């Protein structure tokens, strides 16, 4: 491992639990559909191509339990196929409409073919279960799968409630084990939210490592002399890797560029908002509101037609430049440290595809270009740690940190969302009380207690306070949090009065069907 340079790419794949059988074509379900079509399937296609051509690649993926459940939910997957079918039907009409416009016609054909390919890939190659695709590459040693908190809760805010954190951990581990038949080595901290109290939970649940943002490691009392280029070990024995600050800053610049660079596809300008309403029958709300079709013909910031070939050339140059910058910094680090430096590049997966159309091509270009760079290796975090000298890790405790605005906790606790915690924590205390009061119940009462546990976990989802903070989809975020709180309160009061409406409970179980094997006793005090 001497004289080596390592890049470790880690992507966070997460979606909040969004499921609305009571609404036809719920807008919020489209978040999931778009991520599946534009990010998850394209990433699998990249992995398949690289593997088929024997191009070495290593990547780590954090799959949140809520996303994994949605990827196995028959109702959501049925709606996803209807979503893709609408894109295919729209594409047929677009091919007819654009027959006399060469450039747009070629793009329409390209988007139509992509929609058809994704449907075939999803239904035939992966048989409706793309988790098999990720697991396939994991078994081949190319992909490492991490888990994260059950509902992606921002854990530092629950550090005074050990029962809440243990419930998030235990539910996540059980879900991961059922899906992948093994325990993960790494734990992805939701929003990279770290506080020192989390250390003992990582050790107790046998996780080898986690990842913090750069300043969490570099701003601790005795900063690691090797900066973010080398892990440390906590007092409990958990390895901590830090995100490469400059890599994240450069990709953030790329995220901005994908909305500004005239060669990239314009994410916002969609045919669904440009064409006459009569051409959009399958992409109109009941009230006539328009929706995105996925057919985006224009480049960013001007009226030029999008050119995929020029965008691909731009992406390849961007990938080469990104690698140059990583290698340059790794070379500089080698001069001042013993051991093998690592550049850990951790990002939200939605950047690659859903928000940046060329993002999957960027990742593919990284690995193709990296295969020809002498002395450079791609590794997963677990592989990298395994190859290090165990005696070379300094013991340290990172500082409270996150990857949110300003690097701490304000995104999840400020004047826009602080009201949520007053109710969430009160309900959490009641859930702990229920778990202690009814330790051995069965039948209808056990069903109600398990559903109460689901509702409490759903309230803790980090997405709701983040949406409120960013003033994005605020009504929806508030409604989701309040609905889960109301459902829990109804169950709590029903158990107090010793009467539970079987019809109401069954209806709720069908709507909020996440974590089907949950055991409400995860909220009991540890003895």
Can you tag this structure with a few keywords?
527 residues, alpha/beta, nine-stranded mixed beta sheet, 17 helices
In short:
Helices cover 48% and strands 8% of the residues.
Helix-strand pattern: EHEHHHHEHEHEHEEHHEHEHHHHHH
Beta content: 5-15%
- Unreliable runs: none
First-to-last CA distance: 44 Å
Number of helices: 17
Largest sheet: 9 strands, mixed
Average of per-residue pLDDT values: 92
Rg (C-alpha, Å): 24 Å
Assign a percent range to the helix content. 40-55%
Shape: globular
Total strand count, please?
9
Task: Walk me through the structure.
- With 527 residues, this protein is an alpha/beta fold.
- The protein is 48% helix and 8% strand.
- The chain contains 17 helices and nine strands.
- Strands 1, 2, 3, 4, 5, 6, 7, 8 and 9 form a nine-stranded mixed sheet that branches.
- Strand 1, helix 1 (29-52) and strand 2 (59-63) form a beta-alpha-beta unit.
- Helix 13 (418-437) runs parallel beside helix 16.
- The longest helix has 27 residues, at 308-334.
- The chain is globular, with a radius of gyration of 24 Å.
- The protein starts with a strand and ends in a 16-residue tail after the last helix.
- The model has no long low-confidence stretch (mean pLDDT 92).
Topology:
Blueprint: E1 5-13, H1 29-52, E2 59-63, H2 65-70, H3 74-97, H4 102-125, H5 131-139, E3 143-148, H6 162-180, E4 186-188, H7 199-204, E5 209-212, H8 214-218, E6 232-233, E7 239-242, H9 245-257, H10 308-334, E8 342-348, H11 359-370, E9 376-378, H12 381-386, H13 418-437, H14 443-459, H15 463-470, H16 474-497, H17 502-511
Parallel strand pairs: 1-2, 1-8, 1-9, 2-3, 3-4, 4-5, 5-7
Antiparallel strand pairs: 6-7
């Amino acid at each position: 491992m001497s004289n080596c340079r390592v890049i470790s790419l880690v992507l966070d794949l997460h979606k909040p639990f969004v499921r609305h059988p009571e609404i036809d074509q719920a807008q919020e379900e489209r978040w999931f559909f778009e991520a599946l079509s534009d990010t998850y399937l394209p990433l699998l296609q990249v992995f398949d191509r690289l593997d088929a051509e024997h191009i070495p690649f290593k990547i780590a993926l954090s799959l949140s339990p809520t996303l994994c459940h949605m990827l196995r939910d028959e109702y959501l997957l049925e709606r996803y196929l209807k979503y893709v079918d609408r894109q295919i039907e729209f594409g047929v009409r677009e091919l007819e409409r654009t027959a006399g416009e060469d450039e747009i016609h070629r793009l329409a054909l390209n988007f139509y073919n992509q929609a058809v390919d994704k449907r075939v890939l999803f239904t035939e190659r992966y048989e409706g279960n793309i988790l098999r695709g990720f697991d396939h590459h994991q078994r081949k040693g190319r992909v490492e799968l991490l888990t994260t908190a059950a509902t992606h809760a921002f854990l530092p805010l629950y550090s005074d409630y050990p029962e809440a954190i243990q419930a998030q951990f235990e539910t996540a581990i059980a879900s991961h084990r059922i899906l992948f038949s093994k325990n993960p080595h790494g734990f992805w901290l939701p929003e990279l939210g770290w506080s020192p109290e989390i250390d003992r939970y990582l050790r107790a649940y046998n996780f080898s490592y986690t990842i913090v943002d750069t300043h969490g490691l570099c701003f601790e009392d005795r900063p690691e002399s090797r900066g973010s280029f080398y892990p440390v070990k906590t007092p409990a024995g958990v390895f901590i890797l830090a995100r490469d600050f400059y890599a994240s800053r450069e990709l953030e610049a790329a995220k901005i560029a994908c909305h500004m660079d005239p060669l990239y596809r314009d994410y916002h300008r969609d045919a669904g908002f440009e064409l006459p309403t009569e051409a959009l029958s399958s992409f109109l709300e009941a009230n006539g509101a328009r929706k995105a079709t996925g057919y985006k013909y224009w480049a960013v910031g001007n009226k030029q037609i999008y050119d995929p070939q020029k965008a691909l050339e731009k992406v390849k140059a961007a990938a080469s430049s990104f690698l140059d910058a990583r290698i340059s910094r790794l070379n500089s680090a080698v001069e001042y440290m013993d051991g093998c430096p690592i550049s850990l590049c951790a990002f939200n997966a939605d950047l690659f595809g859903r928000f940046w159309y060329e993002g999957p091509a960027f990742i593919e270009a990284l690995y193709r270009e990296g295969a020809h760079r002498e002395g450079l290796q791609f590794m997963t975090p677990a592989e990298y740690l395994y190859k290090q000298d165990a005696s070379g890790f300094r013991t340290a405790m990172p500082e409270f940190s996150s990857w949110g605005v300003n690097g701490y906790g304000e995104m999840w606790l400020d004047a826009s969302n602080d009201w949520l915690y007053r109710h969430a924590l009160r309900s959490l205390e009641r859930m702990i009380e229920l778990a202690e009061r009814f330790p051995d119940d069965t039948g209808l009462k056990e069903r109600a207690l398990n559903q109460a546990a689901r509702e409490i976990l759903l309230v803790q989802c980090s997405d709701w306070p983040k949406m409120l903070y960013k003033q994005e989809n605020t009504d929806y975020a508030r409604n989701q949090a309040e609905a889960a709180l109301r459902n829990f309160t109804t169950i709590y009061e029903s158990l107090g009065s010793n009467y539970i409406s079987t019809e109401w409970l069954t209806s709720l179980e069908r709507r909020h069907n996440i974590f089907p094997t949950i055991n409400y006793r995860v909220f009991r005090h540890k003895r």
